[in-house]
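Retro notes (design track)

What went well: tokenization of the new backbones is finally stable.
What didn't: we kept losing track of which sequence belonged to which structure.
Fix going forward: every design gets posted as structure first, then sequence, in one message. First example under the new rule, 63 residues:
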């Protein structure tokens, strides 16, 4: 039980005193970058899915 308490105490101290947290501006900038990258990847995946659907319909003569 002492090991668990020591572990939790050490973890708390490390999070509070040793970790450098990003500023609000850095966090906002990173969030925007992630959103833009996610949208670009979603559009690429949608395009590939549509292309493969078109190719399969063409191959099976459904088009």
């Amino acid at each position: 039980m002492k090991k668990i308490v020591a572990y939790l105490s050490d973890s708390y101290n490390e999070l509070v005193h040793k970790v450098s947290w990003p500023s609000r501006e850095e966090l906002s900038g990173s969030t925007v970058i992630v959103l833009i990258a996610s949208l670009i990847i979603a559009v690429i995946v949608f395009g590939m899915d549509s292309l493969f659907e078109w190719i399969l319909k063409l191959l099976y003569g459904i088009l």
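Added context from the reviewer: The two ends are 68 Å apart (CA to CA).
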